[in-house]
Fold this sequence. Notes:
about 50 residues, mainly alpha
Amino acid sequence: xxxxxxxxxxxxxxxxxxxxxxxxxxxxxxxxxxxxxxxxxxxxxxxxxx
Length: 50
């Protein structure tokens, strides 16, 4: 691999890790995609399809 290809691959890897890390951070801090804000006791779990 040449240097520009390596740099491009590293940039893509950094972006991927940042997106995954942000998703993990949001999930741990209760900012999931759930419409009830992660407190499914108030909506009875209706936001999660079975």
